[in-house]
Amino acid sequence: MKIGFIGLGNMGGAIAGHLVAAGHEVTVWNRSADKAAPLVERGARQAATPAEAAEGDIVFTMLANDQAVERVVFAEDGIVRAKTHVSKIHVSMSTISVALAERLTEAHAASGGTFVAAPVFGRPFAAQAGKLAVVAAGPNEALDACEPLFKTFAQHIFRVGDAPRLANVIKLCGNFMIMSAIESLAEAMTLADRSGVDKAALLNVLTSTLFAAPIFKTYGEIILHEEFEPAGFAAPLGLKDMNLVDAAAQSARVPMPFLGVVREHLLATLARHGDAVDWSAIAKIVSDNSGAGR
Amino acid sequence: MKIGFIGLGNMGGAIAGHLVAAGHEVTVWNRSADKAAPLVERGARQAATPAEAAEGDIVFTMLANDQAVERVVFAEDGIVRAKTHVSKIHVSMSTISVALAERLTEAHAASGGTFVAAPVFGRPFAAQAGKLAVVAAGPNEALDACEPLFKTFAQHIFRVGDAPRLANVIKLCGNFMIMSAIESLAEAMTLADRSGVDKAALLNVLTSTLFAAPIFKTYGEIILHEEFEPAGFAAPLGLKDMNLVDAAAQSARVPMPFLGVVREHLLATLARHGDAVDWSAIAKIVSDNSGAGR
Amino acid sequence: MKIGFIGLGNMGGAIAGHLVAAGHEVTVWNRSADKAAPLVERGARQAATPAEAAEGDIVFTMLANDQAVERVVFAEDGIVRAKTHVSKIHVSMSTISVALAERLTEAHAASGGTFVAAPVFGRPFAAQAGKLAVVAAGPNEALDACEPLFKTFAQHIFRVGDAPRLANVIKLCGNFMIMSAIESLAEAMTLADRSGVDKAALLNVLTSTLFAAPIFKTYGEIILHEEFEPAGFAAPLGLKDMNLVDAAAQSARVPMPFLGVVREHLLATLARHGDAVDWSAIAKIVSDNSGAGR
Amino acid sequence: MKIGFIGLGNMGGAIAGHLVAAGHEVTVWNRSADKAAPLVERGARQAATPAEAAEGDIVFTMLANDQAVERVVFAEDGIVRAKTHVSKIHVSMSTISVALAERLTEAHAASGGTFVAAPVFGRPFAAQAGKLAVVAAGPNEALDACEPLFKTFAQHIFRVGDAPRLANVIKLCGNFMIMSAIESLAEAMTLADRSGVDKAALLNVLTSTLFAAPIFKTYGEIILHEEFEPAGFAAPLGLKDMNLVDAAAQSARVPMPFLGVVREHLLATLARHGDAVDWSAIAKIVSDNSGAGR
Fold first, then answer.
1. CA-CA distances (angstroms) from residue D137 to A103, C182, C196, D166?
2. Are B252 and A195 spatial neighbours (Cβ–Cβ below 8 Å)?
3. Is domain C2-162 given the CATH code 3.80.10.10 in the classification?
4. Cα torsion at A95, A97, A103, A107 (round to 10°)?
5. Shortest CA distance to C219 belongs to which of C230, C235, C232, C205?
6. From CA B181, how far away is CA C87, in angstroms rounded?
């Protein structure tokens, strides 16, 4: 299949690699063009503009934020202006706002294309291993067309409805759940530590029983060893995502006090520990506020 | 072995049953004596006082709160006044305050006995199935003596240190983690619901991937179907436990904002929905505050 | 002096009236033109466009939100496009974002004009009575030019610096303080009420002593009598303002947990009690959550 | 009148001084007896036990906490055991729990005496100046008997009902309001400061207009100059009081999220800045979390 791929960061580069490896004809574009080199070596073609990357059957975007998606879609040389056949599908895998998902759905419909939201769960190493989880929403035929492509890089594929925005809501809920898991672990481990309990013992009890889930193991270890750098997912990105959750919550009029706490702790993290730390460094704020290391 | 067992509620009754079934000589006591009948039928002896139940090698307590434990230990006819040989071990499985654990440790030491804290994780059906998790702390020889007994009703046994209080801290941390999991699920599921997403779809995504842990499956289903009655663990007990966490946090000087949120939501649950609901009914407060069912 | 006045709502209409009454040559513009009638009757001239209203020495804007200000400033027929002499001053009295204040400062500088931020404290009846408080920031000469005009409708005039944004920050801080005063009163009065204390007695003690300030008297009475409609300042406007505070807090990286609480309570107010209530109806959420009126 | 006075700290000593100065026959008692010296010099008699101090018509207590009050009332040599005539009135001016107020009401009734709760607002310098505010509750005749005495040291006297506990609820509400005022000022002033605004300018605007109340002036200055030591009211006492509010809120089932925030900030204050600072040092936590002084 002729595929376009826009956004070749840690996540996008790995995913595009799987599509190339599966034998698809992949045309790539990235704002800083040098990121394309490894893929071109492996057989991808490099486009001069987003529009050019969008000339195939399906174009993927995997970008940092709403602004980056808006740029590659709505700019003069953007996707919706690409003169292509009407079956064109745009699959957005980025974590974007629900509002932008709605705008993209309308814009594509108006230009004869189809929008699919397919955000993913998983860190870069899961992307490389082809073990992401995809949450996809859009018209059924479009999802059918995408599914074989998703399988090249995902272990789980969830189809959650016709309206693309549904997938974005679920992705935001998931990221909120992860932040909440981190904060609750941080509070429990700090209480344990300051009460004379070995944090590793607490973590072992939790993750051997009721909390035997990947997220608690992964972040429990990070908090235990205070390995907040280098960031797997940097705190400013975490705050960006929690702000998207906040916008969705305002739109749906849902008060979310746990969200309030994690947003405050992310702000404190940036203020006290800078932008380079992982989003799980909110655990340092919990610890700081208990006087640890005073 | 000659064993005493005090407190024959849903949890205690099931655990004592396993000890009887394993062939131990079990003497039981309960405030309302009729609860002892089923065990007596199966071969247990019924004591007239807590002290009498404590005449064997090891006495277990499984009671509702600090007050109940204080009563069976320190009353005229209580455990520490029992005239028994000095190797006597008292194993407290109740969720009690860290402060009471410290007081019991001292009181037993002063009277020539040994205190072991061994709170458990698991709901009544896990107790019946012999699948509890025990978190035990106390002197090593005492734990060695208890371990074969724990195995009759537990799937996991964690030994977390010499000082009994350590086990109580971990139990409290665990209950706090469960409450936090419930609140975060409630916020995410309410956001999803009010945004047009099928809550079941969100829950499926979460529990198939990052949150594939028992606690999220169990409580996710309860929240999904709003089955808050009959209570598996009633809201007033939840508040009692979160107040114990709060006391431990004050003692250790650890600010815990998630704890603040769940305490407020438990209070609102009691105020709005009464005392009979499950502690997971905090999810109704989240939902109420989003205007659901208005 | 030749003055323009854009935005003739409850606040703007009253302020413009004072300027007319003081003998200035006032040209007015409002999106819905009929609002201009009472002022035209008293001698004001009605402009066809914002640009036309901006042809005098100083133009005031008093509008609902950032979008409305952006429209009258940056549209084809907007203020910054008005072909006028370079001493032109734009005085913005609206509660707008700090970011927009910065953008306006730059835009006016670029077009040879001067931007002054002069948000006001006071409800509509204070505007009519000429008893507003003005917080003004901008270049000194511009403030000197404005001061006699401010005096026609204000009791207090504070000059807080050269950079217009400073006045906007102070205005946002002030509105946050008011919301916090309302929430704290609501919590205290609900606790009193549910504890059997006469709320009026509590309010009397507070406002006769430590809290003898207008804001506590005004809102205490509203909460006491639950007079949340008609709204003096509607809850959606309150939420808009708290979102502006949130944006400023994010920009300055200041975690503000009280802000988190009032934003959540405003959302719950909209979700449960609709858009027509006063922002002080957050007190109903506090009361609802205590089971009052259950 | 024959008066007893128990508790001669900064507050109690000053109040007892006014009673002596007014010509009453005052018998004093304090745990550390040397505190009585200045009053004895001025004509007071020193009692050997609380019971002895309670032999007159009315006995006042002004003590640090519930435990201290329980000791002087219920100990072998305590007030309720004093063999005295049945019209005996005990006036408690301490900030105690609502539950203890209820217990004292019952205990005095059972022993033929009368309990009056009369907590005061005001710092030590207000006590010395005779400018306290008294909030009194109890049987009318008892309040009539007390009123002339209150007038020797109070500027405001509020009678709030028959049941003594009502006065304690109001006192706790008042202290909660003060803490909330401090936190809201701290958040606003930190936002201002980190946004480039002169904090003094913000404070001036606030306290010249809507917040022209003593509490905002007093604490605004303390926060402005970061003068948290020596403590006017030490942080551990603040936490004790907020815990009493929390107990009252639990009893009345009133969720109070602002209370949650200030309790967390008081804990963080103790953990990070020690026990010697004023309760207004919660402002340092707000400031710390914004990265100030990093």
1. 63, 27, 13, 6
2. yes
3. no
4. -10
5. C232
6. 61
Q: How is the beta sheet containing A114-117 ordered, strand by strand?
A: A45-46, A25-29, A2-6, A58-61, A89-92, A114-117
pLDDT at B87 over 80: no
Q: How many CA atoms lie within 13 A of A138 on its CB side?
A: 28
Bond preceding residue B257 cis, omega within 30 of 0: no
A172 closest CA partner among B200, B205, B285: B205
Contacts of A277 in chain C (CB under 8 A): none
Contact: C264, A265; criterion CB under 8 Å = no
Contact D58, D145 (CB under 8 A): yes
Q: What is the pLDDT of residue A84?
A: 57
Q: For residues D195-217, b (16+ Cβ closer than 10 Å) or e, as one string?
A: bebebebbbebbbebbbebebbb
Does residue C148 have a cis peptide bond before it, meaning omega lies within 30 degrees of 0? no
Mean pLDDT of C118-146: 96
Q: What is the pLDDT of residues C202-250, one digit of tens each?
A: 999 999 999 999 899 999 999 999 999 999 899 999 999 999 999 999 9
Locate C104 and state its tokens: 């306006």
Distance from CA of C217 to the nearest CA of B (A): 28
Confidence of residue A88 (pLDDT cuts 50, 70, 90): confident
Helices (H), D22-97: 37-41, 50-53, 66-74
List chain A residues with CB under 8 Å of D272: 288-289, 291, 294
Q: In terms of Cα–Cα distance, which of B211, B206, C244, C240 is closest to A172?
A: B206
Of the candidate CATH numbers 1.10.238.10, 3.40.1280.10, 1.10.3720.10, 1.10.1040.10, the domain formed by C169-289 belongs to 1.10.1040.10
d(Cα A138, Cα A88) in Å, to the nearest integer? 13
CB pairs under 8 A between B and D: 44
Rg (CA), chain C: 20
> Which residues of B participate in catalysis according to the annotation?
171
| Class level of CATH domain A168-289 | mainly alpha
Residue given tokens 């925030």 in the structure block: D261
pLDDT tens-place string over residues A101-124: 999 999 999 988 999 999 999 988
Give the residue from chain C lying closest to A249, CA to CA.
C267
Structure tokens belonging to residue C134: 């003005």
- Domain boundaries for CATH 1.10.1040.10 within chain B: 169-289
* pLDDT tens profile B172-230: 999 999 999 999 999 999 999 999 999 999 999 999 999 999 899 999 999 999 999 99
Residue A163's alpha-carbon distances to A72, A158, B204, C280, in angstroms, are: 22, 14, 18, 37
**pLDDT for D196 beyond 90:** yes
